[in-house]
Design brief:
The complex is a heterodimer.
Chain A lengths: L1 H11 L1 H37 L3 E7 L14 H9 L4 E15 L5 E8 L7 E6 L7 E4 L1 H7 L6 E5 L1 E3 L4 E3 L2 E11 L8 E5 H7 L10 E6 L5 H11 L3 E5 H11 L1 H32 L1 H9 L4 H38 L16 H28 L2 H10 L1
Parallel strand pairs in A: 3-10, 5-9
Antiparallel strand pairs in A: 1-11, 1-12, 2-3, 2-6, 2-11, 4-9, 5-10, 6-9, 7-8
Chain B lengths: L5 E10 L6 E11 L4 E5 L6 H8 L7 E6 L2 E2 L5 H11 E4 L11 H11 L4 H14 L15 H13 L5 E5 L7 H16 L3 E5 L3 H6 L2 E6 L2 E7 L5
Helix pairs in contact in B: 3-4, 3-5, 4-5, 5-6
Chain lengths: 395, 232
């Protein structure tokens, strides 16, 4: 009967109850979004790096992958050395460069990766192939649009421009053999992948046997950290970074996001708590006479408190459920805005819905709703019955 | 000799105030026998309602004792006093105080639900009680759909729900017009004839006149206690 009474009490002032639920829902949505923001980037970044099973990135000493234009020399030897390390199952060399696609109109500039197609982890082939014959080029949709090229077309590509001679250097004719989605680039980026040997040759002596980074895959039963240490020991000229290390580094760089999310989340929780406290207090104050009579006719203090707390739980649960829907929709909307920032990989999400974290946060809100109901309930149930009835009769 | 159902011995109730304590009840002693119908009358502020609260274990005397059915209710801790009220005492208030969100039937069922009476039994008993107070056809109405007199009769049915030893009523006709007040008086009379012990605090001369015994209070003391002749 306590649940029935609580439900009926909430229905007594429908508009007030709905407004309270809406208020809690907004608070819950904000709390949920902040939790999603606090964990979203970290988790989606970790997921991005973990794709294709590559667990270690190897870059020139003291740099992060593609942080600078520095390269690793004697890449073939480094590849062989890493392959000899126990637990390393694949080494994917990557050489980054800028290419100019020449034609009748203005040249189109794009970011290109020289890779070994048999072990690459930088793109997902959507159409065609990436193995040749000859100098094969796999392009992003944005590059295909910009160059109006199709699979099978031949492109005139250069990797450098001499401003004095006004000529392009490192030119080569390549065939578009495939269309791909580049994992670490945004959908709007003009990007291409070529054979590593082609990019090295086009770069001339400066690029011979050099790479920008290696991506290393380790066996599932091997701790990537131990392989990372072994790589750095074997190759003193490089910095090896495990996925966990990269995530930690990213987290350090994005710590202000988490702080902001934490503060706004705490504010949301406080607002939700105060809202439920206010609504329950107002509701209890309106019914102080009824509560005194319930106590007088023998309803125990605990049962009175339970009934009022159930009302708080009802408001919090309904608000949390509505907030879940509202929070997911607002997160999607905000995510679409933030993902519009240029240069962000397509796979990066700012807001990531993780059921565990989301339900923990909403559980916290419901718990605060319970706590919010306890004080006004206990206060009302503890008022001296006779005095309250006398004051109510006079009032 | 019949043992009193309710016994008050030298009860005092003082309310602390910043200047001087208010002595609401001063040295009241009283016995009520089973089946008695007692009216407590007196001017406003004479301590009638305070005495009723002491008799109903809603309040505790500052000193003295209150015993109901052999239980010293004045010394019961809050939890036990609450349970005692639930199972042994029926209350009727001036303002009815029905829960507006519940129907008449549900209001009557409320004390039984609290006393853990099964749903079937309490529904049946509530219907029986509403029939007793003449409201069988209004069981599904909420208080707002009932007249003042009907609400008070539902409140009386609620007070009887757990078969109390004694019915305590504080100005039960205070909010009613003469006609509906008469209905309530008639109902109390019938209840008493059916064996219910009733103590009523009132300003209503008609209600007091219906009682078998009238206790006059003044300044927190009983100044006169007069048994009336039982009418036919």
């Amino acid at each position: 009967m306590r649940i029935q009474l609580a439900a009926l009490s909430l229905r007594r002032h429908v508009s007030r109850t709905l407004l309270a639920i809406l208020g809690v829902a907004v608070s819950a949505a904000m709390l949920l979004d902040m939790v999603m923001l606090a964990t979203g980037m970290r988790e989606s970044f970790a997921s991005l790096l973990g794709r294709n099973g590559f667990t270690i990135r190897v870059s020139p000493r003291g740099t992060l992958p593609f942080d600078t234009e520095a390269t690793i020399a004697q890449a073939s030897d480094a590849t062989a050395a890493m392959r000899r390390i126990a637990g390393v199952t694949a080494v994917a060399p990557v050489l980054g460069t800028t290419i100019h696609v020449l034609g009748d109109a203005e040249p189109v500039t794009a970011f290109a990766l020289g890779v070994d197609p048999s072990v690459q982890g930088d793109y997902e082939l959507l159409e065609g192939n990436d193995r040749g014959p000859g100098d094969a080029l796999v392009a992003s949709d944005a590059l295909l649009r910009a160059t109006r090229a199709r699979i099978g077309d031949t492109l005139d590509v250069a990797v450098g421009f001499d401003p004095q001679l006004r000529t392009y250097t490192g030119r080569r004719r390549v065939v578009v053999t495939g269309r791909a989605r580049f994992t670490y680039l945004s959908a709007d980026d003009r990007a291409a992948a070529l054979q590593l040997a082609s990019v090295q040759a086009m770069g001339g002596a400066d690029r011979t046997d050099r790479v920008s980074l290696f991506m290393v895959r380790t066996a599932p039963n091997v701790d990537p950290e131990s392989a990372r240490v072994a790589i750095e020991r074997a190759l003193p000229r490089v910095t090896a970074l495990s996925t966990a290390g990269a995530v930690a580094e990213a987290q350090r760089r994005l710590s202000y996001f988490r702080q902001l999310a934490f503060i706004l989340g705490a504010v949301s929780l406080t607002v939700g708590f105060l809202l439920v406290t206010t609504i329950v207090t107002v509701s209890v104050n309106e019914r102080i006479g009824e509560i005194a009579v319930m106590r007088a006719i023998g309803v125990s203090r605990v049962h009175v408190v339970q009934q009022i707390v159930i009302e708080g739980i009802g408001l919090s649960l309904a608000g949390a459920a509505a907030g879940l829907v509202l929070g997911v929709f607002t997160a999607r909307y905000l995510n679409s805005i933030l993902r519009g920032f240029p240069g962000l990989p397509d796979a990066i999400d700012f807001f990531l819905f993780q059921p565990d974290s989301a339900f923990r946060a909403l559980g916290l809100l419901v718990a605060s709703g319970i706590a919010a109901g306890v004080y006004p309930a206990w206060r009302a149930a503890s008022l001296p019955i006779s005095t309250t009835l006398r004051e109510e009769a006079v009032g | 000799m019949t043992q009193p159902l309710l016994s008050v011995r030298d009860a005092h109730r003082d309310y602390p105030r910043s200047s001087e304590p208010v002595h609401a009840v001063r040295g009241v002693s009283l016995d009520v026998l089973p089946g008695e119908y007692v009216a407590v009358v007196g001017p406003s502020g004479c301590g009638k309602s305070t005495l009723l609260n002491l008799l109903g274990a809603i309040d505790r005397p500052t000193s003295g004792t209150v015993t109901i059915g052999g239980t010293a209710v004045s010394t019961l801790p809050d939890r036990a006093a609450t349970h005692f009220r639930l199972t042994h005492i029926g209350f009727v208030f001036q303002r009815f105080y029905l829960l507006p969100v519940l129907t008449a039937q549900e209001n009557v069922e409320l004390p039984m639900a609290e006393a853990k009476v099964g749903p079937g039994e309490r529904r049946e008993r509530a219907r029986e009680l509403l029939g007793y107070v003449g409201l069988a056809d209004r069981a599904d109405h909420r208080p707002a759909e009932l007249s003042g007199g009907e609400q008070q009769r539902v409140a009386i049915a609620r007070a009887l729900a757990n078969r109390p030893m004694v019915l305590l009523a504080d100005e039960p006709t205070g909010e009613l017009d003469a006609r509906t007040g008469s209905d309530v008086i008639a109902l109390f009379d019938r209840l008493n004839r059916d064996g219910m012990t009733i103590i009523v605090v009132t300003h209503d001369e008609k209600l007091a006149g219906a009682a078998r015994r009238v206790i006059h209070m003044l300044d927190g003391q009983i100044v006169r206690d007069e048994p009336l002749l039982r009418r036919a």
